[in-house]
Amino acid sequence: MNGATNRKSANYPSILEAPHPDPDDMLDPFLRRFPISTFGICLGLCSQAGLWQALATSRSTRFLHVPLCINFIVWCFALALTALMFVVYSLKIIFHFDAVRREFRDGVRVNFFFAPWIACLLLFISLPPSIEMNLHEALWYVLMAPILGLGIKVYGQWMSRGRRRLSKLANPLNHLAIVGNFVGAMLGASMGLREGPIFFFAVGLAHYVVVFVTLYQRLETNEALPRELNPGFFLFLTPPSVASLAWEKIDGHFGYGSKIAFFVAAFLYVCLAVRINFFRGFRFSLAWWSYTYPMTAAASASIRYSMAVTNPVTRALSVVACAISVTISALLLVNTAYKIAFMPRKLFPNDCVIAISKKRKTTLSRGNPDDRGGGSVAIDIRGL
């Protein structure tokens, strides 16, 4: 019994065991406290730009009379915010590379390294018609190169590394490492490419099945995610929702393949929506932005489905999904802006991942033999 407990804690150490910085201690520099998971905000806003474009141009939602200028405004705001995030995190890479390296080695945080490139793909997918241009094929290859490189690294660790095997690290945030393949396939197919989008779609589909099955049959030796990370469970919606849109671009119409993926996403949406208590009772953090992109992707897929199957029910479904997505995104944006303006220390506290590494280095310097040989993966709540 004790052996099973030890194995359980070795896989996912509780955040309560992590060295929380004392409130009276001096905060680390802002760049050091700026986590890669902040790019989750970019995912939510960039996908919102695409949603507003779909609302304004789709036949099934034309009765709403949504002006295209909203797409332009949201897109410009998302572009500016994404550019700002790139600049800030680039400065972190330059001045605090050790902190970036520790983030990349964290089993949960590494999934967010896909987010900046997914955000860029979404910006080009949702490009407003007023500034739409013919995108060169080379742009797609440039944007997909980081996703391919990260995929080779992360997927390889899932298969071969002992402490980083998927069976030990499985959590809903792993979907971020999958969805970039589908987003890239969608953009590539819309640019007229063929083989490249199919390649990434196939890679994404294969690994999505593996992640999906692993998450459904998580072993008892796996530690449950902290309650504060429960919003990440909505990432279950993202791969099937985006896959339905990507296959529509590849196949040319919203056929059976797209419908199957959409129905999976719709079923998962209902399964999560009815568990309201599962997503209540914890304080606001950047982890709440995990709601936005999955909901927006599902809403966009519902619009495409309502165009393929036109009736009052599908139209109502798409309108409700879009209303929920827009409302949640707006509330989170207002709340985040308020926290940044008046309580920035609570939104960007000292990074637990870095604090754990600091404590481990201090312990090693004192000659504690029990901590040699590397540590296990830490789940950082406050940085997410």
From TrEMBL:
Region named Disordered: 1-20
Name this protein carries in UniProt: Uncharacterized protein
Cellular location(s): Cell membrane; Endomembrane system
Source superkingdom: Eukaryota
Gene Ontology MF annotations: voltage-gated monoatomic anion channel activity
InterPro entries assigned to the protein according to its UniProt record, in alphabetical order: SLAC/SLAH (IPR030183), SLAC1/Mae1/Ssu1/TehA (IPR004695), Voltage-dep_anion_channel_sf (IPR038665)
Cellular component terms (Gene Ontology): endomembrane system; plasma membrane
Lineage of origin: Eukaryota, Viridiplantae, Streptophyta, Embryophyta, Tracheophyta
Gene Ontology biological process: intracellular monoatomic ion homeostasis
Ranges that cross the membrane: 34-52, 72-95, 107-126, 138-155, 176-193, 199-217, 229-247, 253-274, 286-305, 317-338
CDD domains per the UniProt record, alphabetical: TDT_SLAC1_like
Primary residence: membrane
Protein family per UniProt: Belongs to the SLAC1 S-type anion channel family.
